[in-house]
User: Which sequence fits this backbone?
């Protein structure tokens, strides 16, 4: 708990001076099976006090816990008032199956159910939505595609980092912004702004969501870690320099 409070205090100082429109915290809903509505209320209170604007609800398919916990999260956020928001990041890899675009328990059903909640994060009246990958479903998010056909306007800021900056050009008409998952050093080198600048250049006038994380690791059997060291401080300093539209 002491470490969490220290990180929250540091985050509060960083968020206050970063020139971003909004700052979000990534929540893997698949890890919240034991959350009560009160747990969500506590988390939201901590986040609000740290200057965070919204939780990014990473949801994977199929996971029977997702609809239960999403409902609790929105109930807690709505009770907390209109100043704290939530939005979805549809995880196309974490659940074992890609998200269906329409029908029951689909991308469209979640967006249509919650986009009218006072706790849903909107941009110019459109629900903000993101992904973790999903490059095989790009056409589903296109204007006239299945998702927008069922939902209407969406402010869509996906993570399709696997395409690389050189591969995103063909999809620019399908997105309102872009989120890069490339936020850790490769090997024994410090993380720089080179990849962020490459993405910003590739997406032109689209909104850019910059990722900030102190570390990232995976437990056995596929055990690995991306080096953190001073990354938490370094990335906030880089965010100050880059001044992206959004920080996650």
Assistant:
């Amino acid at each position: 708990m002491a470490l969490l409070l220290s990180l929250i205090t540091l985050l509060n100082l960083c968020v206050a001076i970063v020139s971003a429109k909004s700052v979000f915290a990534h929540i893997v809903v698949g890890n919240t099976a034991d959350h009560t509505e009160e747990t969500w209320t506590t988390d939201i209170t901590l986040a609000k006090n740290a200057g965070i604007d919204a939780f990014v609800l990473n949801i994977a398919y199929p996971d029977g816990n997702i609809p239960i916990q999403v409902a609790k999260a929105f109930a807690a956020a709505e009770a907390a008032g209109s100043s704290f928001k939530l939005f979805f990041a549809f995880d196309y890899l974490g659940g074992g199956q890609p998200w269906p675009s329409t029908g029951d328990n689909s991308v469209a059903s979640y967006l249509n159910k919650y986009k009218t909640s006072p706790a849903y994060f909107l941009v110019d009246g459109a629900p903000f939505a993101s992904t973790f990958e999903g490059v095989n479903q790009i056409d589903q998010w296109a204007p006239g595609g299945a998702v927008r056909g069922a939902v209407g306007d969406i402010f869509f800021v996906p993570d399709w980092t696997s395409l690389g900056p050189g591969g995103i050009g063909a999809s620019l008409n399908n997105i309102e912004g872009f989120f890069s998952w490339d936020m850790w050093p490769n090997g024994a080198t410090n993380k720089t702004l080179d990849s962020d600048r490459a993405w910003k250049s590739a997406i032109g006038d689209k909104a850019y969501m910059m990722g900030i994380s102190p570390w990232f690791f995976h437990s056995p059997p596929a055990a690995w870690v991306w080096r953190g060291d001073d990354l938490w401080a370094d990335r906030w300093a880089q965010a100050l320099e880059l001044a992206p539209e959004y920080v996650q």
